[in-house]
Description:
CATH superfamily of the largest domain: Immunoglobulins
Amino acid sequence: MKIWCLLLLIGIFAVFACSTVLAETGLEVEEVNKENVVVAEIGNSAYYDLKINNLDGEDQFMVFTLVGVQIEPRDYFNLSSGNTTVPIKATMSEKILRERRDLLFFEYQIKGMNRDIFKSKLLVNIVSVKDILEINYGSFHPDNDKIEVFVNNKEDVRLENLTLVLESVFFRESTPFSIGPHENKTFLILVNKEGTEDLVAGPYISTTTVVVNGKEVKLEGVVDFLEKEGTSVSESTEGIIIRTTVINKINKGNTPVAASVSMKKDILSRLFTSFTPEPSQTTRDGFFIEYTWQKNLAPSEELAVKATTNYTIPFLILVLIVAVGGVARFYYLKSVSISKRVSLVRTKGGEFALRVVLRVRARKSVEKLQLTDSLPGMTKLYENFGKQPDMIEKDSRRLAWNVGHLGRGESRVYSYVIYSKLNVVGRFELPLAHARFEKDGKVGEAYSNRAYLAMEKS
């Protein structure tokens, strides 16, 4: 029972609220879109009719908005009781024209001298010139002196005081232009045939610059350059490693045409090329092979040829050859090379001892060569073995041999023994040996390989 009472109270409140709003505004409004398409580059105004039913007595009213749109009339106007049609004009702000496109609802308000504010929304369609103008060209035969231009206005808006600048390899023309709502216009422009004699038949891009209010809008179209027989030819190539070439011939005439497509491949690339469809004829000429496709085309019929060359395997082989060649060149062009090897030495007392052998070889003649090596930590030099280094730096644990001149292909071998009281287990790696020398007055350096010994726990 309580629920029913609550629902009844809510219903009475809703009816009272609606009646209050009606009483406060006293208006019924129907919006009629007359010209609500706005071109951003032009900034033209939108026009509407407000069909207002004034349910109360005569009053002064004003129409306005707070969303960056200017509405006219801007002053108060008298509105008698009953139905009245009020034409209004809405002009978008520069910010809206710059940032918004497509359909946009914006709120407007009607304020009476003795009434509350009536609020509703109007619809505007903001478009760009490039979205509403469509420019196409008729097919151009080499024997023609003029080309047809087709301009289509796709929106319900008038475009006036435009300038069209039409450019391609066949023409360049500037013309003033206006067009009505949803209007199609056709006109002819002259062709400049100078320099077009060697052009291959096929599609060519044409650029149209629409100049409006000092602003430029770019549009693109295609001029189809026909063959003498009325056949349109297009060719496209895509890809680098996997290269695909597609050739299309379309009979745009009104009589049957014998169409032929030719393609040349060298004896290497043909091994990696597949065709769709298979060629009608294959002719070999030295290191090249010419493939030919032939077909009788009825009007609007097409001959399409697709050639796919897959260079993946040759590319990988080339990369491998370059990499190997680079490594080999880097290795063999070094003036000096150092090899370092190490072996275990047995001692009477069972101490850990290693014999280190350094071999320095000159691939080119060098001067002032000094060979240096470093003792690993926790090891000492056994000075009673072999020829002592020319210099021993105990603080830095550095050994040096002054080799001096080393002729091309000449090599020297130096060895020494190190030992340690500590028992070494696992991988024991030695520092890199280093050589410094002069070659043709320039200082050069070289480093040895990494030498190590794997010790097992006894």
